[in-house]
Amino acid sequence: MKLWGGRFRKGENKLMEEFNKSFGFDCVLYKKDIEGSLAHVYMQVQVGLLTEEEGKQITEGLQGILADIESGKLALSGDYEDIHSFVEINLIERIGDVGKKLHTARSRNDQVALDMRLYAREKANDMVGHIASLKETIKEVADNNSVIMPGYTHLQRAQVVTFKHHLMAYYNMFDRDEKRIKNALEILDESPLGCGALAGTTHNIDRNITAQKLGFKKPMDNFMDGVSDRDYLLELMSDFSIIMMHLSRLSEELVLWSSQEFKFIEMDDLFTTGSSIMPQKKNPDGAELIRGKTGRVYGNLFALFTVMKGIPLAYNKDMQEDKEGFFDSVKTLEMCIQIMEGMIGTLKVREDNMKKAVKGGFLNATEVADYLVNKNVPFRDAHSIVGQIVIYCEDHNKAIEELELDELLKFSQVFERDIYDFIDYNNIIEKGIKKNLK
Ligand code: ARG
């Protein structure tokens, strides 16, 4: 069942036919394909390419196909080349010869360009919703857990932070991600319908009508660009890759924090799995899988970059390869964002262990140096003095705040009683993170 048998003397090689088909994966575009066709028919009637009656028959035929697919009456299966053939052939079967007029002033090239753009637009909007919801959950958990924890550099305890501040770093990353997708949505907001195969059409069509009907800002300016632009997919997949990178970093933290070595959090049973041999195990598989799936989302991006880099204008069949990777990335990302939201929303914070780790890590050493600087000691000297104090503390198995004033005075004469308040962890947070972030 083909749309183009006319100029061929023989049928296609069987393997070639299978090789060429995209119906197995582009069937997910059925709704967008029909939406696009409905807008096209509407325009055909407006400009006089179809009579009102013809337009009505085709419109009803298309709406019937859509309803039957959605209700399960019409299965997305059979020996069709692609979703466009499926819809058109079914239409002609239903309403007869008038259905053959649907494709007047259109090519599958502008048709598929439109379908993918409509699909990408919908999925990108869904993604904005998923990210917004993840952000909300992060904010809620952060607000409920303003407890002190060690902040790290080089994965070595560095300075005191709060769990709230640490989580809110991710909130900010996802906030930028949301903006990036919205920005991509703005750029892709042009309609390729009416670009034809590559050179428009001699028919008196009105691309503004279809662009407006399909909710686009305007028709694309250039026909050849219109049918062969896949930038918006690359842009969205780049955005998706950045989101996966953020999710993967957060996943890595969840894996570390839930380990017996850190014990900063407990992950809920809902998002962990067990071992078939070791009865005690509770593994953070959700986080690990997100970390792992990041690779496949990057891979899909680079596959399409590579597909696109050498193809001349305008449409080439290579471009059919844009679909599976994009669909896979959308599905993967949707799942990963939702799993991450579930993991964050249900984790338990072990405040006691976080506090213990803060105490044991000399996380107020920088503030001891700041104290000395306030008493007019040059910073480099202060740094060196505190270094000596840390060695002393290590030798005596004490935290800096546990030293007597007499002990501190051995390192510098400027220490006074107020040092203890100055290097109290909660006061450090008040003076640093809290004050400077208002
Ligand atoms: N299945 C094709 C694709 O995904 C549809 C466009 C076909 N156009 C063509 N000139 N053969 O790209």
TrEMBL record:
<comment type="similarity">
    <text>Belongs to the lyase 1 family. Argininosuccinate lyase subfamily.</text>
</comment>
<feature type="domain" description="Fumarate lyase N-terminal">
    <location>
        <begin position="6"/>
        <end position="299"/>
    </location>
</feature>
<dbReference type="Pfam" id="PF00206">
    <property type="entry name" value="Lyase_1"/>
</dbReference>
<feature type="domain" description="Argininosuccinate lyase C-terminal">
    <location>
        <begin position="362"/>
        <end position="430"/>
    </location>
</feature>
<dbReference type="InterPro" id="IPR022761">
    <property type="entry name" value="Fumarate_lyase_N"/>
</dbReference>
<comment type="pathway">
    <text>Amino-acid biosynthesis; L-arginine biosynthesis; L-arginine from L-ornithine and carbamoyl phosphate: step 3/3.</text>
</comment>
<dbReference type="InterPro" id="IPR029419">
    <property type="entry name" value="Arg_succ_lyase_C"/>
</dbReference>
<dbReference type="InterPro" id="IPR009049">
    <property type="entry name" value="Argininosuccinate_lyase"/>
</dbReference>
<protein>
    <recommendedName>
        <fullName>Argininosuccinate lyase</fullName>
        <ecNumber>4.3.2.1</ecNumber>
    </recommendedName>
</protein>
<keyword id="KW-0456">Lyase</keyword>
<keyword id="KW-0055">Arginine biosynthesis</keyword>
<dbReference type="InterPro" id="IPR024083">
    <property type="entry name" value="Fumarase/histidase_N"/>
</dbReference>
<dbReference type="Pfam" id="PF14698">
    <property type="entry name" value="ASL_C2"/>
</dbReference>
<dbReference type="InterPro" id="IPR000362">
    <property type="entry name" value="Fumarate_lyase_fam"/>
</dbReference>
<dbReference type="InterPro" id="IPR008948">
    <property type="entry name" value="L-Aspartase-like"/>
</dbReference>
<dbReference type="GO" id="GO:0004056">
    <property type="term" value="F:argininosuccinate lyase activity"/>
</dbReference>
<keyword id="KW-0028">Amino-acid biosynthesis</keyword>
<keyword id="KW-0963">Cytoplasm</keyword>
<dbReference type="InterPro" id="IPR020557">
    <property type="entry name" value="Fumarate_lyase_CS"/>
</dbReference>
